[in-house]
Amino acid sequence: MFENLLKYVPVPKREDIKVTEADIKEFLNSVLFEVPYRKQYQIGKFKVSFVTPKLNVFDKEVSLDDLFIACLDSVVTEKGTHNFGAEGRPKEEKAKIIANWLFANESPLGYLIIQKFIDFLYRFQALLQHVMSPHFFETDSTK
Question: Counting beta carbons within 10 angstroms of the beta carbon of residue 50, is it exposed (0 to 12), middle (13 to 18) or buried (19 or more)?
Fold first, then answer.
């Protein structure tokens, strides 16, 4: 869907993504309570929301398109909320809706959403690395 567009979209660098203690706590709470971790970004007058994907992110067969389709939750514009994350919608149907909505017109919004998706993806990876670190749960009494 958009992998070819990445050549034209300036994306954040992985090393520029910093996670805070608050990010880690929010992420852990979402895992513990089985609620998808959600991150919302403001893009001018628009808001875009991504959620952790309901798929195996460690599977080497998962493409960027698959991750994008699984993570894009909603976009809020002046015309209303476009909820892409509706439960029960087949992946192919969701992909078609996203492609038609984001890339059918000449608006730069699709490119900006891709930038924010890459930020979300790097943030999600950093959060996973933090909580999977063998030293994450170490305290003075467990050393």
Answer: buried
**How do residues 60-81 score in pLDDT, each as one tens digit?**
888 888 888 889 999 998 888 8
Q: Where are the domains of the chain?
A: 40-129
For residue 100, give both structure tokens: 């038609």
Please tell me the distance from the alpha carbon of residue 114 to that of residue 2, in angstroms, as a whole number.
8
Nearest to 86 by CA among 78, 99, 97: 97
Alpha carbons 114 and 116: distance in angstroms, whole number: 5
**Span 95-136, pLDDT tens digits:** 888 888 877 766 788 888 888 999 999 999 899 888 877 766
**Global confidence as pTM:** 0.81
Q: Looking at the DSSP assignment, which residues form a beta bridge with residue 74?
A: 49, 83
* DSSP label at residue 12: -
